[in-house]
Each structure stands twice: as C-alpha cells, then as structure tokens.
Design goal:
Chain lengths: ~300, ~230
C-alpha cells in the first residue's frame, strides 16, 4: 500500500468522521449554524447598508461646485470678462463654467413664486432686476478649493463666493464615523461567532472524549485527531455562509425594489455589483471563524 | 527494553507518587507490579505511556528517552505499546470488530488491512464468534478480551495492563491472566498491575512491589506479601 493511497484513504475517513460528529451533535450543530448565519447576515446587511450610504454620500460630495454671485450693477461685458477670467483659472473645469444671467434668474424666480405676479410686474415696470449674474463652476481638486475660493473673491465685480467644501467635509467626517461604528460592530459579531463555534466544538470534543483518549493511547497523531473537528468547523462555516448569502440576496432584492419605487432620489447599488465580494467575504469569515473557533476549543483539550 | 533510573514523579498538587525508582525490564519479560492502594503503581504505568511526564531521573523505553522526546513524536512511540484498563473502555455503540478496528483506523491503517487483521486478533483472544456482538452482550471477561484485542491490534511489543481483572468475576479472571501469559509467550513484554494475590503466587513470574513510591521488593518467582 503506497503512502499516497494511505493518506487519501485517511482523508475520506476523517471527513466522514466530521459529518458523523455534526449529526451526532445535531441540535448544537444546527444552533451554531443558525447563530453564525445570523451574525453573517447582520454583518452583511450592515456592510451593504454602509456601502450604499457611502455611495450616496459620495455622489452628494462629488458635486464639486462653487457658485459665484456677481455684483448686481455690472454690464454684460463686465460679466463676460469675469467669465473669461474664471475659465482660465487653475483647478477650474473650463467646460463646466455655467453662467446663469440675471434675466434667467428672474424668469426662474417668477416661475417659482407665481402667486406673487404683482411683485414681478412691479420689477418689470421699474426696469430694476435685483438678481445677480451667477456662475456655477465645477472644480477639479477638492484639496485646493480654498485657494480657488480666495482667488475668485478677489476678482473685481464678484460679490460673493459660495463653496460646497464645507458640505464635502461634513460628508467625509460622517462617512468616517459610519465606518468606525461599522468596524466595531463587525469585531463584536465576529467574536460572538467565534464564541459560538468554540462551544459547539467543545461539545463535540466532549462527546468524543473517550474516543479521543483511546486514539491517543493507540498512537493517533494530533493531526489525525484534530482534523475531523477542523473539518466540522469548516462545514459549519460554509453552510452558514451559504444560507446567509441566500438570505442576503432576497433581502437586498426586496429592499432594492421598495426603495427604488418609493425613493427615487436614493441610489442603490445593484446586487450584481456586490455579489462576488459578499460571497467571498461570507465564505472567508465563515471558514476563518470555523477554524479559529475549532482551534481554540481543541488547544485546551489535547496535549500529546 | 524499559529502564527507570532514579525516576521521581511529583504531581502538580505536591504528591510525590514515584520516589527514586530504578529498575530494568527486558524485552519479552512478564512482570507483575503489586503494592497497596496509592503506592504509585498506576503512576508508574502512566509515565510509561507518557500520560504523565516524570519530574526527574531518566526513563528510557525502546530507545526513547521519554523526558526528552518531543510531543510530536509521542504518537509514534505509543504505537509500540498496548494498553488495557480495569474498566475496559470499549465503545458501547460499536461492535467487537469495530472496537478493535478503531485502534487501526486511528493510525490510518487502510480498511483492506483492517479486515484481514481483526479476525486474526479476535482469534488470539478467542472471540472469533463475537465479532458482530456489542459490548453489552458480552461478559466482563469477554469485554476485557476485546480490550486486549484492541491493545494488540497494532502489534505492539509491550503490553501494559492496569488491574485488568479488577472488574471481572474471579472465575473469569483466570482466563484473562492466561491470555496475558500466552501473549508473553509470543514474545511480548507484559506488565500487569494487580491486587490478586492468588494469581501472583500461582504464576511464579517476576514481581515488583511498590510502597509509597519506592520499589521495596523485586524478585523472580516472587510471592505477594504486603
Ligand atoms: N493526577 C493526580 N494528581 C495528583 N495526585 C495524584 C494523581 N494521580 C494519582 N495521585 C496520587 O499519587 C499517588 C499514587 O497514585 P496511583 O494512582 O499511582 O496509586 P496506585 O498504586 O495505582 O493505587 P491503586 O491501587 O488504588 O490504583 C496517590 O497518593 C494518589 O493520590
Ligand atoms: Mg491504580
């Protein structure tokens, strides 16, 4: 009998032992799969939620807009001159400098406040347009935005510069705190999962105590004794992550449909874009928890 | 060969169970170990199969210096020993065949070899007709023979038995002792801890007497005297 055949034979035996043990401790195995699965589902949902929040926040933050209000008493030529200067500035996206003329503003306002027609009629009569010409500028680099703002403010005829940088900053710090909370949440769920696995495997080890002691007496190697338990832990991990993935799939679809129908402004990342990461993440966490939990519970039970 | 040289064993709670034990057991010898309760007999056997590590001195078994042998080599060392306990330690939900086969599976022997060897071993302990029985269907003597068969499964050169007849009807004890003698005659080293004065006196083998962790008597053809 060659060594290779021998070890292949052994591996089959060890795997069958793992399954036997899983069934022997039926209730406990089911319980630990349920708990690990729940932890994974909660972890996964939370991760997807955070991802989507960040995605939406990013879209808000990526407006990268500065609004420049001109003085109200400028001639059209003055306004054009400002426009030309702005286009040549550093950090300004030439193509995305948009002028909203005071006439356009007036029309917009008139539509917005249609119940105050008399007010606008009065303005027409007096020939005074109180609105400023406005440039909406898209910039390229978020970090250099305050320099740009200062430059813009120095231009003759510019009344006021309004920047969305403060918004971007708020969004950034909001994102950071969400991620921070999320990380702690993950750590806690991970510890809970490991703890549950430890107890399952401990029970499995306990129910096979006599078997283990006889194995040791007849000279079974540590590898041979521990492998079925490790496989058992991995099976628990794989089954849990499989179920968690399926649950997540349906959950996400339901939420996706509900949100895109009712809240058009919220953008949800399609499941297809996330499924691989999610599946790999689940499998990795499931298997790693299985292995770590098993190793910890075995180290106490087995000496030489 | 087994050699104890000034061996001491102190348990973590401070009990000195073996105190300066020195003795040699040659290959193929048959040895009774006797002594009153708490003398240190079981401890001595435990140091032999490295369930317990000795605290000082030297213990060499078949070339293994047990104080220096690393844990990872212990499984292979143990394959050279067959161990039998007073309480049999059989698996109640496995057949006689599977109980014996378990010892082989545990060290990765292929099924084909197991199927061939188990019947042979069951024949040695005269249980060839009980292969399919479960332990609860057997007498104490038969159960101990299954345990002995399991100890023999991997063909060790040393058999260690801690009060093998302690849980057995006296009438059936003799067959266990006879079996151990038979195994010894097939060339194996056999070490038997026992309280059974009759057998010790009857079989006229080497007798080592232990008291308070010391060897107080060691003679061939010895008698049981406490
Ligand atoms: N694991 C242990 N921890 C601490 N003390 C122990 C341990 N095992 C045995 N002892 C002590 O060591 C001494 C020797 O015990 P041992 O079991 O070797 O005696 P024994 O000769 O086998 O007795 P018996 O005939 O009753 O089986 C006793 O005092 C016992 O209480
Ligand atoms: Mg004892």
């Amino acid at each position: 009998m060659s060594k290779k055949q021998r070890s292949r034979y052994s591996l089959g035996y060890l795997i069958s032992q793992a399954f036997k043990s899983l069934f022997r401790n039926g209730m406990m195995s089911v319980a630990s799969i349920a708990v690990l699965m729940s932890c994974l589902t909660v972890m996964g949902s939370f991760a997807l939620l955070v991802y989507n929040i960040n995605y939406n926040l990013d879209q808000l933050g990526s407006l990268n807009e500065i609004v420049v209000y001109c003085d109200t008493d400028l001639s059209d030529e003055d306004v054009d001159a400002i426009g030309r200067r702005v286009r040549l500035m550093d950090n300004v996206n030439e193509e995305a400098v948009k002028l909203i003329t005071k006439e356009e503003v007036l029309i917009e306002e008139r539509q917005k406040y249609s119940e105050f027609t008399d007010l606008f009629d009065q303005m027409d009569q007096s020939g005074v347009n109180p609105y400023p010409d406005t440039f909406v500028i898209q910039y390229e680099d978020n970090n250099k935005v305050s320099a740009l703002q200062m430059e813009l403010e120095q231009i003759e005829g510019v009344h006021k510069v309004q920047c969305r940088a403060d918004l971007a900053e708020t969004i950034e710090s909001l994102k950071n705190s969400i991620i921070f909370i999320f990380m702690w949440f993950l750590v806690i769920l991970f510890l809970v999962s490991v703890f549950v696995i430890i107890n399952t495997i401990k029970l499995a080890v306990h129910s096979r105590k006599q078997e283990i002691s006889i194995m040791r007496y007849v000279g079974a190697t540590r590898w041979f004794i521990t492998t079925p338990f490790v496989i058992e832990g991995i099976i628990i991990g794989v089954v849990s992550s499989g179920i968690a993935y399926a649950i997540e799939y349906f959950l996400y679809r339901t939420v996706y449909n509900a949100v895109s129908v009712n809240y058009g402004m919220i953008d949800i990342v399609p499941f297809g874009e996330l499924q691989n990461v999610l599946l790999i993440g689940f499998a990795a966490v499931g298997i790693i928890t299985g292995i770590i939990g098993t190793s910890i519970s075995l180290s106490k039970h087995l000496k030489a | 060969m087994i050699e104890f040289k000034n061996v001491c064993k102190k348990y973590p709670n401070g009990t000195l169970a073996l105190d300066d034990v020195s003795l040699k057991i040659d290959d193929g010898e048959f040895v009774f170990i006797v002594g009153e309760s708490g003398a240190g007999k079981s401890t001595m056997l435990k140091t032999l199969f490295r369930e317990e590590k000795i605290s000082s001195g030297t213990l060499i078994v078949d070339g293994y210096d047990l104080r220096k042998t690393p844990n990872r080599k212990i499984p292979h060392y143990r394959r050279n020993l067959g161990i039998v306990f007073q309480d049999f330690r059989l698996f109640p939900n496995k057949t006689v065949f599977e109980n014996v086969a378990f010892a082989m599976r545990a060290i990765g022997v292929p099924s084909r070899d197991i199927n061939r060897r188990v019947p042979t071993i069951l024949r040695i302990v005269n249980l060839q007709d009980k292969a399919k029985s479960f332990p609860r269907e057997l007498s104490g003597g038969e159960q101990q023979r299954v345990a002995l068969a399991r100890a023999l499964a991997n063909n060790p050169s040393i058999i260690i038995a801690d009060e093998p007849t302690g849980n057995i009807d006296p009438k059936l004890s003799l067959e266990i002792m006879n079996l151990l003698i038979k195994i010894h005659k097939h060339g194996k080293t056999v070490i038997v801890v026992t309280h059974e004065k009759n057998f010790v006196d009857y079989f006229q083998q080497r007798v080592i007497t232990i008291k308070d962790g010391h060897v107080v008597d060691d003679k061939v053809g010895g008698m049981f005297d406490e």
